[in-house]
Amino acid sequence: xxxxxxKAATSRVPAxxxxxxxxxxxxxxxxxxxxxxxFEALRADRPxxxxxxxxxxxxxxxxxESAAKxxxxxxxxxxxxxxLVDDEASSFRSLGVETVPLTGTTIVKFRQQIRGIPVxxxxxxxELDDDNELVSLNSSLAKPDLASYVASISPLDALKRIADLxxxxxxxxxxxxxxxxxxxxxxxxxxxxxxxxxxxRTKGKASPAQHQIPLVHDYVIDARSGALxxxxxxxxxxxxxxxxxxxxxxxxxxxxxxxxxxxRVMRDARLNIETYDLRYRDPLDxxxxxxxxxxxxSPAAVSAHTHAAVVTTYLRKVLKRNNIDxxxxxxxxxxxxxxxxFERPPGSKxxxxxxxxxxxxxxxxxxxxxxxxxxxxxxxxVAHELFHGVTGGTARLIxxxxxxxxxxxxxxxxxxxxxxxxxxxxxxxHWQVGCGMAVRDMQNPTQDxxxxxxxxxxxLPLTLNHDLGGVHLNSGIxxxxxxNIMTANDGRxxxxxxxxxxxMFYIALTQQLSRQSTFADSRRAVVLATRSLFRNLPQTxxxxxxxxxxxxxxxxxxx
Length: 559
Ligand SMILES: [Zn+2]
Fold this sequence. Notes:
Layout: E1 17-18, E2 23-29, H1 33-44, H2 64-77, E3 90-100, E4 105-114, E5 117-118, E6 123-128, E7 134-142, H3 155-165, E8 178-183, E9 189-199, E10 216-222, E11 228-233, E12 258-260, E13 263-265, E14 267-268, E15 273-281, E16 291-292, H4 299-317, E17 331-337, E18 351-356, E19 361-368, E20 371-374, H5 379-393, H6 401-419, E21 432-433, E22 440-441, H7 467-486, H8 498-512, H9 519-533, H10 539-555
Parallel strand pairs: 15-17, 17-19
Antiparallel strand pairs: 1-2, 2-7, 3-4, 4-5, 4-6, 6-7, 8-9, 9-10, 10-11, 12-13, 14-15, 15-16, 18-19, 19-20, 21-22
Helix pairs in contact: 4-5, 5-6, 6-7, 6-8, 7-10, 8-9, 9-10
Bound molecules: zinc ion.
The site of zinc ion has 6 residues, from helix 5 and helix 6.
């Protein structure tokens, strides 16, 4: 049945919101009245549609991916869902199917394509129950207005341009340029080649005022003019990383090792964790990951190894995630790194940083009581940084501006959840994230000069000198919303358990967010995740939990 635009006026589903970045967003869930009605109307409309004309094409007779594809095609064509973007040039490419053990649902993600070209950062998440019927539908779609969809430079030209920018000279970086429709930060749509995960070979790009070294970037090259559109940093780095948290290096730890060529090495085969030592060399010299740590064990390596094990075990047990990449892949840490450019004072081996470089963990060290102490000694720092790896492999939130602040906040949320995971009473949790002087406080962001309300969002240039648009600054707003949700209570007890909180934020991040998501997108995502997690409870119980989430975001001014 063709969509009649005049029906939009009597729509059962409210018009979708349009975000500032030019995407139309819409989210509905079966636990809401309007969602239930819309999904029922869609089912009632099936006999009239070509998509579901045959019994064998009904969702329960298909695999989840085929079912989701048909449900989406039908929803776009049907009168029952008049508010989805109705664009005949659009098609949808599956990004894969994921079963979510935490909710017992299956989520199929799609990317919007126009004339076969993917729309960067677009996302449709179709959540299905056991019968492959809709649990929720969340879409973020665009209508790019390009004059031409034909590239005038070749993929090879784009790679050469990137080789030049990233310091490769005549060599070409690894990676395949893919055409995308990309909305630049000026709000202009571009036909662009994107090459992901290009490791930089230029030294000294970062300003000395920062302890940051973006090692890996995604490059966006205009496919018409060859101009650089964006250089998207993939290096979330900890700022002001001064460690003076309780020193755990003196504590005895038990960890898994392996025998290799008759020697004991720091490899945990069960969790697939490996820990390396760079012996105070510069990771920019191309020596990563360094030497696999052998017995006798250095205290820095013990900290990195045992903390990586705590985080990996949490991922597996609480989030049902199989390591950072969810495929059981290696979790690699390197201790004793010194980026010479930021060594303070020169020759001291002090490099105040810990970071996920897009592929592995790097740890520097500070000076504590006259002794070098690894940044790996703080569990909240390790968890924060490793979670950048989870984000990088899922929502892949661009590390600039609002999406960058959201990336930071999700790392703070899981840094907090993991560092407090041995304390079941949320009332006794610590809300400071980082090490030493509390670098960020989720409860009182303003204490560390972060804003905590949306109206105080700080607009900064998207440059290194301005913290890539204030990613460590504006994260305070989303952190505060998360704090409100984590501590939401009915006057007698907390509304959510730590495990439920972890599941809500994890599902929101990994299933409902995309590269340019905003705080408002996160609000929608956490609400959907909450509805799915508790969908089998009585409606009043669902409503209490959804209200707590909405109130948490509202208190930070995120709507
Ligand atoms: Zn970070």
